[in-house]
Amino acid sequence: MPTHFGPADGPRQWPGDAVADPKRSKRTLSVAASFLTDASALEQHLPEGFTLAGEPAVTVEFHHMTDIDWLAGRGYTMIWVTWPATFKGSRDRATGKFLAVVWENLTDAIITGRDEIGHPKLYADIEEARRLDGVQICTAGWRGFRFLELEVSQLHDAETNQQGPASDGNLMLKYKPRTGAWGEADLCQVTLTPASDPDRHVEQRQAGVGTVRFHKATWADLPTMHHVVNALAALPVIEARGGTVTLSRGGKSYRDQRVLV
Amino acid sequence: MPTHFGPADGPRQWPGDAVADPKRSKRTLSVAASFLTDASALEQHLPEGFTLAGEPAVTVEFHHMTDIDWLAGRGYTMIWVTWPATFKGSRDRATGKFLAVVWENLTDAIITGRDEIGHPKLYADIEEARRLDGVQICTAGWRGFRFLELEVSQLHDAETNQQGPASDGNLMLKYKPRTGAWGEADLCQVTLTPASDPDRHVEQRQAGVGTVRFHKATWADLPTMHHVVNALAALPVIEARGGTVTLSRGGKSYRDQRVLV
Amino acid sequence: MPTHFGPADGPRQWPGDAVADPKRSKRTLSVAASFLTDASALEQHLPEGFTLAGEPAVTVEFHHMTDIDWLAGRGYTMIWVTWPATFKGSRDRATGKFLAVVWENLTDAIITGRDEIGHPKLYADIEEARRLDGVQICTAGWRGFRFLELEVSQLHDAETNQQGPASDGNLMLKYKPRTGAWGEADLCQVTLTPASDPDRHVEQRQAGVGTVRFHKATWADLPTMHHVVNALAALPVIEARGGTVTLSRGGKSYRDQRVLV
Amino acid sequence: MPTHFGPADGPRQWPGDAVADPKRSKRTLSVAASFLTDASALEQHLPEGFTLAGEPAVTVEFHHMTDIDWLAGRGYTMIWVTWPATFKGSRDRATGKFLAVVWENLTDAIITGRDEIGHPKLYADIEEARRLDGVQICTAGWRGFRFLELEVSQLHDAETNQQGPASDGNLMLKYKPRTGAWGEADLCQVTLTPASDPDRHVEQRQAGVGTVRFHKATWADLPTMHHVVNALAALPVIEARGGTVTLSRGGKSYRDQRVLV
């Protein structure tokens, strides 16, 4: 949209003269931290058809990306908030990470990601990742209100081919409101990003102690997303579950994203 | 989206403790300029069901808004590109301005505008409006590439209650791609913003000579929207059609947006 | 600097083809709030030769400026922190407001202001002024760390020609370190901005209740100015002293700035 | 400045609890390109006491720095414009690169660099470095006006310990205007950054074909620095002299900067 000028180029639609390079593009510095919370609190934020899968641990990941082919070599940052869940539909069944919200600092990627693959993306100002006295620090805000801080400290080298729990991939809810019928939906469907990402290559991984803090906001601080930040800020941190810092190269364009029913 | 945290507040959904004030919010400085172009060139960029209505004049409008109630008093800027068109559907028929593309510098407004009312919004960096030696100047770019310049000069006071041509309102195409079926649509519908806006009050209006320039871009300059900018840059400027600078207060929230069939 | 390309244009040096207009340029929205603090705390932050003059009240002012002639119609914002002081030099004596620190969001103005007239200017990200439920709100930060919040509430119309206390003007310390002799100064002099500003015209003034909050910072939050912010954050707020919101037009270029000895 | 709150921390003044690490901090991606120009054109922009040294080649360098210790791990970018020159003073004589102008995108570094070591720093918006189809691309602008583009193409690996021409270091002019005596100087001195930088370690170097373009600006495009950009844009490009892309780590804090007389 606008479509009457022809299709927009982007990660899943390539211009004639440009060359995608999924083995080299993009380069990503990922900083992640997890914490154990209360299962019943998390369940309140799961859409219909979903149940928690395993222990109620929330993971927050900052992905600082550069060398992105579809941006002609530019970069941007995304933040993922996930927890483990199972979806049981009328036909499909999948277990993986439920992608509760995504923040990004590039509107172009937010627009195509929401529309084409149903990622629940919002905008945030995200500071560059920085390391101070061995601690990796990430922060995000909106118009001067900092709502998220994540740190990973006591870093030590870890296995690059770390095997996570078996997963069908990332699960999320694509939702499109109906124009003129406020509160109704034109579209409400579960979509899946399959776990496989053969072109992604981890170059370095470190593990350590992770901490995550969401800061409670008033409506005036964050007029369009205080409810999201406050829901996350209200989750009790029962126990920190560690953090990682990962350098990787390559990755898929999510053309394998599909709808579950 | 994300919806599982509850509905997002915005122009059409108000938090419990905030008060909308459509007679005072928002305050808008609008700068507009028009030019006559070639009818056949414009027709190439009209969706199915639309035809040109009257002379093929393109209007570009910068709306610099402050004091926006749903943003807790903050502001942002939007740019509209329109030309006159008639839509004939299977049931409905309407004539007004076809809203070909919108650029805004606030992602939150882009997201809700695209999803809720089908405005074809993209992101741009937009400089503050400025006046130099009596000329009102507006510019827009993306990551350092300036793609649009608009100026209105030789300004003189004009009637505030200027009557435009009879119009049913603004017409546009809401389009949502289908996940997993690349190139197909989940939704493709014409929406209308009715012309009536009773709470909007024009405080001052000036008219003058307008000029508009779109700058041709390579894919690498504007990887996600070079095709939009280049389509507009390729329109021949046959004749300038004047410009205006308007100060207004108040305005509707587009809850009257509706689908035409 | 660089000077070998010729003199830089700016507020006090005009290009051949541009016209300064001190009666119309600039337009300023000023938001100010004061508080009574402890005299001995303030005295610690007065340079040699200065003493407090009258009650120890700190005033913080946000000046949101637009339509600036020397910026070809653009704008920027400055923040002033002052308290009343008297300077007694070997020859000169003056009483007015001691300008303890200035923050601005335009580097070009910071550079020329520091070098040409000795304003103690630092950089801050400053949000647009906004009004919510009748409260005027201003904030400033640096790289996502908000260090200053100012609000003026319960606003009512006030006399535009409000007479302040008799003043010789604004006093400040121009200081230039010596290259190669770390800790020594090449220049350390008191400068005065005389109070008179005949081209400045107040269009509207409102008065109300003001609050000011400086937020304590670590070195890592504000690596180059934590000491300034923390000094101000440590001042006790003994009593709020009111706030104002003022719209004005015009003003001088500070060419009357002079050195006191 | 302000100094009455105590000394400001920065590259040459360290807070008690922080640790400088000149072997690891900072990490720099440098992109440089040179061109041969007309000697007489360059000589017009040399201050008194300077003469061209060797062939009249202008070099433009973008230094994208991250992991900066004195910024608590943050980064910024600087752009250097130099050409070879010899300074003959009443006592001192030195040959090296004359640093004609510096642009940076961090005001804090601009302020301390100008005042403490006399670097002729101005502000620019600088895009992140990016590589597209093997070409390294750098651009800079101000408020949406792009004034500088630099590219290095046909890159191939080069010797990391490349020996440049014998040099005493970088030479520049520190200039401070006199308050109240417009057009006069309080300080005008030549400063030298000695060439030695033992903690800097080049990790990777590539060489290729370089191109540099400065875009001519009106006063209204760049009100405070059109004269600098236009002087550089007016230099004829007689022959491209190659470009490099260099990754390095570590580097000095310029505490060895000294005044030449």
Structure explained in plain terms:
4 copies of one chain form a homotetramer. Chain A is mainly β and 261 residues long. Chain A has a single domain (21-158, 165-260), classed as Acetoacetate decarboxylase-like, CATH 2.40.400. The first copy, chain A, contains 3 helices and 15 strands. Chain A has helices at residues 39-43, 107-117, 226-233; strands at residues 27-36, 50-52, 57-66, 76-88, 93-104, 121-123, 125-126, 130-132, 135-142, 145-157, 169-177, 185-194, 201-214, 239-249, 258-260. The first copy, chain A, has a 15-stranded mixed β-sheet that branches. The model of chain A has no long low-confidence stretch (mean pLDDT 93). Chains in contact: A-B, A-C, A-D, B-C, B-D, C-D. At the A-B interface, helix 2, strand 6, strand 11, strand 12 and helix 3 of A face helix 2, strand 6, strand 11, strand 12 and helix 3 of B.
